[in-house]
Amino acid sequence: MKSDLFASENMARPAAAPGMSLQNAKSVKYTVNGEMLARQGSMVAFRGNLQFERKGQGIGGMLKRAVTGEGLALMSVRGQGEAWFAHRAEQCFVIDFEPGDSLTVNGRNVLCFDPTLSYEIKMVKGAGMTGGGLFNSVFTGTGKLAVVCDGHPIIIPVTAQNPVYVDTDAVVGWSAHLETGLHRSQSVGSMIRGGSGEAVQLMLRGEGFVIVRPSEVTEPAAAH
Predict the structure, then answer these.
(1) Residue 31 Cα to chain centre, angstroms
(2) What does the pLDDT look like over 100-110, one tens digit per residue?
(3) Are the C-beta atoms of residues 83 and 143 closer than 8 Å to each other?
(4) N or C: which end of the chain has fewer CB within 10 A?
(5) If DSSP codes are grouped into helix, strand and coil, which group holds residue 48?
(6) pTM of this prediction?
(7) What residues pair up with 39 in beta bridges, in sequence order?
(8) CA nearest 114: which of 82, 70, 76?
């Protein structure tokens, strides 16, 4: 049987080492030898002796879902084998954390990660209960995290002299040590997306970066 479908870049390849790697631009392969964590519903294929189990998140996770209608619902994957993960054909990126690194990530952008990483769901400081319910996951430690992005991300440097203002529906993540707050703008609200009235942006100040997706479309609320 012959077809471009069977081109070498589409074929699953043997893993060179345990852990996470990109299968292609829109999927991640994880060679499991023990345990890893992934977004519920993101597994598209697996082989080997693997068990999948819903992982509870405690009070912080339940609060986030109650307020925002979206949560970082996780599952643990245990055993020995290979699993492939993807989400709505979005672009996939693998972030390698070194000691001292920390990153705040919107739950909708988390795909899977190593169990050596720690994560905590926090309310964005200065955002209160507005701006779409700004709860995000803060990742620290050493290991790899795979994130997804609807389109090609925009990485914007942030400095103390030049804060950055981002749409709360478009932000993917930012350096966890940045100062955050809400910025309200009447004039911007009348120009963006043809809206009117007051618009709210997330303000980021300090030394670091923010990751923005080129889309403001939000996902449907998760079932409670």
Answers:
(1) 20
(2) 999 999 888 99
(3) no
(4) N
(5) strand
(6) 0.82
(7) 74
(8) 76
